[in-house]
Structure formats: C-alpha cells, structure tokens
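Bumping my old thread because nobody answered last time. Still need a sequence for this structure:
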C-alpha cells in the first residue's frame, strides 16, 4: 500500500514570519521586540493569569487553553503587519475598519490549513470571540505591553512614558483580582537590574 499524499500548506511558513514583524514601529526602543517574542510572553502571562484565578479566586479555567490562544493572538499580523496603535485607533471608523481587516486575515490563515485541521485552529486564530479566554488573553496582552514600557523607562528611555500611562489607564479599566495579583507580585522585578534579580540564593 502506497503512502498517502497530502496537499501542501503555507500556514506554518507564515507563522514562522512572526519573528520578522517588529512591534512599536514608531517608537525609539532600547531593545527591539518582534511579534514572535511578544506572543511567547503573552502566552506565559495568560497561563499565569489562569493559574492565579484558579488557585486564589475559585476560577475554573484551562491554563493550557489560555496559553495556546495567546500564542496565536497576533497571528493575523503575518498578513497585515503591525499597524501602530495611534493609527489603528485614530477614530472609531479606523478601528472598525482594522478589525474587519484582522478578521479577514484570520480567515485567510484558517483557509491555508488542510480541511481536517481547520476546525482545531479556527478558535485559536479568532481574536474577536467574546468569551472569558479572549478577555484573559487581552489582559495578558496589555500587561506585556505595560512591561515593555516599564523595561524601557528603567533603561532611561522616556519615549515610553506616555504609553505607560495609557496602558495603566487601560489596565485600571479592566482591573480584576488576577491582574492585581500579577501587578503586585511579579511586575516590580521588571524595574530591577540583573544583579538585583539574581541576588536570591539558588
């Protein structure tokens, strides 16, 4: 019996290009950040928020599901690029148009997959579902952008001062117990030097 032949898919070749898309394109940064790096950090933070909610606040989330959804939350940018936030949200019409572009890009990515795999990846690629996991990933996304600002300001780069204040306001607007826990327990270390965070005994 001959081995089955399969149609080729460009899906993961596109995913591999997340590392080529630079974030904060209008900002002077001490350290460049690409979408692949950002997505990994958002996945770790989303996983942590789910674990925190389950451990301390009677949540019943699946941390692995949160992490996987976070890994793909910016996947559409391999087709659209990363439009700067001031442009993306310049006005309501611009924000609405960009959401439509994102949704179309997500559908294009899903269609790149073999038919039998599309149902598995479609929920991971949709940034527009209105459920608890989408809200959690958005919180993780904002936290990671906030952390980027903290790191840049700690390096003396005042370019990120206004962005930090804007993200502080956004986090305040969606504040909950797990976000507050993460801010109080984990975020202060991001302002410290390597020597300071390495001072704990192994």
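Sorry it took so long. Here it is:
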């Amino acid at each position: 019996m001959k081995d089955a032949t399969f149609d080729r898919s460009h899906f993961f070749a596109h995913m591999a290009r997340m590392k080529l898309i630079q974030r904060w394109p209008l900002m002077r940064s001490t350290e460049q950040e690409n979408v692949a790096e950002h997505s990994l950090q958002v996945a770790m933070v989303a996983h942590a928020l789910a674990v925190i909610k389950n451990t301390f606040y009677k949540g019943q989330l699946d941390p692995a599901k949160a992490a996987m959804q976070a890994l793909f939350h910016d996947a559409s940018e391999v087709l659209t690029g990363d439009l700067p936030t001031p442009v993306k949200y310049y006005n309501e019409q611009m924000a609405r148009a960009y959401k439509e572009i994102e949704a179309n890009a997500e559908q294009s990515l899903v269609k790149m997959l073999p038919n039998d795999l599309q149902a598995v990846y479609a929920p991971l690629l949709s940034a527009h579902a209105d459920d608890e996991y989408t809200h959690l990933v958005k919180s993780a996304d904002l936290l990671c952008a906030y952390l980027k600002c903290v790191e840049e300001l700690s390096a003396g780069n005042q370019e990120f001062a206004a962005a930090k204040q804007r993200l502080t306001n956004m986090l305040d607007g969606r504040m909950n117990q797990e976000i507050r826990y993460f801010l109080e327990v984990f975020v202060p270390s991001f302002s410290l030097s390597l020597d300071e965070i390495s001072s704990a005994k192994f």
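The two ends are 57 Å apart (CA to CA). Let me know if any region looks off to you.
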